[in-house]
Amino acid sequence: MSDVPDQKRKTIADSVLARLSTFALGVGLYEGIARSVVEKAVADMPEASVEQIAAAARMMMLFISG
Q1: Total domain count for the chain?
Q2: What is the pLDDT of residues 40-63, one digit of tens each?
Q3: Burial of 43 by CB count in 10 Å (0-12 exposed, 13-18 middle, 19+ buried)?
Q4: pLDDT tens digits for 33-44?
Q5: Cα separation of the two ends of the chain
Q6: CB within 8 A of 65, min separation 6: which ones?
Q7: Rounded-to-integer distance, Cα 66 and Cα 16, Å
Q8: Separation CA 52–CA 31 (nearest Å)
Q9: pTM for this prediction
Q10: Residue 22 CA: distances (Å) to CA of 7, 8, 26
């Protein structure tokens, strides 16, 4: 059962990454970098909604690309 939180975080990260993939490419980030950003946002915000995680990841992507 210890892998359940990890699986939930992976599912959330996959969902957020799917939402932001076009945005990430638009600001010049490749999939591996975008995935790292999204995974960090998911790990840093365990109680946040998917929308909040996506917003935080989007801001991090903008910061990294600038």
Answers
A1: 1
A2: 999 999 899 999 999 999 999 999
A3: exposed
A4: 999 999 999 999
A5: 41
A6: 27, 28, 29
A7: 21
A8: 20
A9: 0.87
A10: 24, 23, 6
